């Protein structure tokens, strides 16, 4: 049993009310239980919603050293932290040790987060990826599922 970004399983929960469905992730359903999570929704943000950007690494957000800001400049840091905490709570409750998360997401990105059209991509972890790693949960990207 592993956590999965809900959008990878076809749930319309992305900021623009779309999915990031992954055939490779869906194929895993034949052999294991996948627990869908959307930390941004779990943190209280609606779908659709404005896109958001990290103003620092996800670990910095957790440590109060950086913010998450929506396209219109609204501080949504508390929503991202709350959503990450809810995902961690579920992982601990179910004894989950691995997660496959959506690359480039400000919540789920692992090692690569989209910083928006101007800033490009940063080599950071998203907020939930950083929190799961801090708590000993292995984080994989959707492109790595064939190696899982």
Description:
With 148 residues, the protein is α/β, with parallel strands linked by helices. It has one domain (2-147). Helix content is 27%, strand content 18%. It has helices spanning 23-27, 39-42, 58-62, 77-94, 127-134, and strands at residues 2-5, 34-37, 52-54, 68-70, 98-101, 113-114, 121-122, 138-141. The radius of gyration is 14 Å and the shape is globular. The protein starts with a strand and ends in a 7-residue tail after the last strand. The mean pLDDT is 90.
Separation, N- and C-terminal Cα atoms: 12 Å
Low-confidence stretches: none
**Domain module tally:** 1
> Given the helix and strand composition, which structural class is it?
alpha/beta
**N-to-C SSE series?**
EHEHEHEHEEEHE
Could you tell me the mean pLDDT? 90
| Number of extended strands | 8
Could you estimate the helical fraction of the residues in percent?
25-40%
Task: Name the assembly state.
Answer: single chain
Q: What is the overall number of helices? A: 5
Radius of gyration: 14 Å
Estimate what percentage of residues fall within beta strands.
15-25%
- Biggest sheet strand line-up: 2-1-5-8
Main pleated-sheet profile: 4 strands, parallel
Overall body shape: globular
Task: Give the key terms.
two-stranded antiparallel ribbon; 148 residues; 4-stranded parallel β-sheet; 8 strands; alpha/beta; single chain
């Amino acid at each position: 049993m592993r956590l999965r970004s809900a959008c990878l399983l076809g749930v319309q929960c992305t900021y623009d009310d779309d999915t990031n469905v992954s055939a490779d992730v869906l194929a895993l359903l034949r052999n294991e239980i996948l627990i869908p999570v959307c930390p941004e929704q779990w943190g209280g943000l609606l779908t659709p919603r404005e896109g958001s950007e990290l103003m620092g690494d996800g670990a910095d957000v957790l440590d109060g050293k950086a913010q998450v800001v929506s396209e219109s400049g609204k501080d949504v840091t508390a929503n991202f932290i709350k959503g990450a905490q809810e995902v961690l709570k579920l992982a601990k409750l179910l004894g989950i040790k691995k997660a496959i998360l959506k690359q480039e997401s400000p919540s789920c990105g692992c090692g690569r987060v989209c910083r928006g059209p101007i800033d490009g991509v940063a080599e950071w972890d998203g907020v939930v990826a950083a929190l799961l790693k801090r708590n000993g949960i292995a984080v994989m990207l959707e492109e790595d599922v064939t190696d899982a």
